[in-house]
Design goal:
homodimer, alpha/beta, 11-stranded mixed beta sheet, 11 helices, 11 strands, 16% strand
Chain lengths: 343, 343
């Protein structure tokens, strides 16, 4: 990360009320980020949310040197709020106000572990789309058996399958991944029901030919079984398919845990066996820990927006903040604009 | 299973060359089925494939009392053959000839562990569709944390999403599952990106309303995370989504095995730990054994067609044969016709 003069602090608008453990994890995550970066970058936090609750967390957490201000609001966007209704009904919510700071140029990045749909609608409306982008997109890292995760997009922001949309997702995902996985020419694959280019619906076939003719490092179609095998750095699909893939994959570990518990409940010996097995299982599956990735960007909007899981831990929030700073410093959005204007 | 007079044997056209271990597993599976059913049903096997190879397997396998005939052919449909090209180029293949026996009324059921796409195209052309069925469909059982599996359809036979298609899949899947899981009114769910009926594409929303107005036991939308949790007996989706869901889910165990191997390879202690853990893991995951289900039906065609996995063991083939007999005896297809004519 580039060292910045303090006169040029990076201003982070943090919706501290977004996550399931707000504002505890948000504020602590900010302090973690500060401690990790204080020697390499000047950071200024704008905490948006309930002032008293924020101060309570600060009071019991060592944060000397933390550069922050608080914008108070009691309104909160819940996980149940309709993303579009929020645009009209919750303009005083911490999520909306934090996004507004970015839109008004009073912040450089916007970070929240709140309602993803609301972040999508609010950010798209307040920030607008990058020139050349038809639809914004949200991707997600999925762990693989390789050393690096796969970046799958779209996972729900844009559910209509149009070849141009998927092509743009591929461009945005490729640029993003090239910076964050440090891969020069990340491989891009199209999620399909077979490897041959003749497979899939007409829209998918058209997408295949657009990707083949692009400057991307397109390696062709991959199937559902190839995702976790890490067949490509970037996997492109429509948001409907991607959302189902993501949620199915996330459920796998829970199913496994349930099965193990269930087995353990069937007698003392089973319980003993499981007790002996668990530590090993935990080590085996350690790399499937999503925390490390620390949120994902909302790609295609005019601004740096990082979205986190509602269950984000302070460590995850810290990583989201770090990601947002890298995203900002590396000028990802201008690279996306350039790439799409040339095509 | 109803006891049949021997004068009324059930004739099974078995493509013995379809699977990866053909004809070994096919012939042995037939013998297993005969031994299991000889006291309850009269079965007559028509083995279609290489006569000498069939006789070799029979020569080294006890099969006294087995009622069979052999139709010799050397032509085989491979897993790489184009399903549509096969219609013209491989009319002398074991797969095509076995399907033909059913079409000509010389067999009551058609069973193969061969090229699924070819079984779909050949069966649809030779048998035709059931009155009221727009598109044939292939479903699959997916293991759940509940005591019964979930039947997901379509998984690749019909990739275009049309509300009417999905409605028909729901009707066919519901009738099939009610018989094979012995559930009176199986629950039916629509795979979507959210639970609210406002979620999804226009086609998905229209499907939702068709299912709501139907006589099915429709419980609404479920998400990707709900599939393995066993939220519904029947899960309906388009063949593109279903195929990706199936292959992703099938890859989970392989990923897990890879992770465990990988962990074991990192030192003697790890290897020891894994060695101690494996037997327990195997027991924990035992219910994820697909063999028991023994293939899936091609629903919507005029005839009983059971499709098996290329890796089908003799046990799996045996179960496929048993399924095909049950399917035939229960008159599933006439029930489907009746159900769709009333709607």
């Amino acid at each position: 990360m580039t060292k910045l003069p303090n006169s040029n602090n990076i201003r982070i608008a943090l919706d501290v009320m977004g996550g399931d453990f707000a504002p505890e994890n948000e504020v602590k995550g900010a302090i973690f980020a500060f401690n990790e970066l204080k020697n390499v970058a000047g950071i200024e936090f704008i905490f948006v949310g309930n002032e008293q609750k924020i101060k309570d967390v600060l009071a019991r957490t060592e944060h000397s040197g933390l550069n922050y201000s608080i914008i108070h609001t009691d309104e909160i966007v819940t996980m149940h709020d309709d993303p579009v209704a929020v645009l009209k009904t919750k303009k005083n919510s911490s999520l909306y106000m934090a996004a507004e700071l970015l839109a008004k140029g009073q912040a450089d990045t916007f970070v929240s572990a709140g309602n993803t749909g609301a972040m999508l609608s609010v950010s798209t409306m307040l920030l607008g789309r990058i020139k050349g982008v038809s639809r914004p997109t949200i991707g997600t890292y999925m762990p693989t058996i390789k050393s690096t995760p796969t970046f799958v997009l779209d996972v729900g922001a844009t559910i209509d399958l149009k070849p141009r949309f998927l092509y743009e997702f591929a461009v945005m995902g490729s640029i993003y991944v090239s910076h964050f996985l440090g891969k020069d020419k990340p491989t891009v694959a199209l999620l399909n029901i077979g490897e041959e280019e003749t497979k899939g619906t007409d829209a998918i076939k058209e997408t295949y030919s657009m990707l083949s003719q692009s400057h991307l490092n397109f390696i062709g179609n991959i199937e559902g079984r190839d995702i976790l095998a890490g067949a490509a750095d970037v996997v492109v699909c429509d948001g409907f398919t991607g959302n189902i893939v993501l949620k199915l994959a996330e459920s796998f570990l829970n199913i496994l845990k349930f099965k193990i518990k269930d087995y353990a409940s069937k007698g003392f010996l089973n319980k003993l066996k499981v007790g002996m097995m668990l530590p090993t299982m935990k080590s085996v599956l350690s790399e499937f820990d999503y925390q490390e990735y620390g949120g994902v960007p909302l790609l295609g909007v005019n601004g740096v927006v990082i979205i986190g899981h509602g269950k984000s831990t302070p460590k995850a929030i810290k990583n989201m903040i770090v990601r947002s700073i890298e995203f900002y410093q590396k000028g990802i959005n201008s690279r996306i604009e350039t790439a799409l204007q040339n095509n």
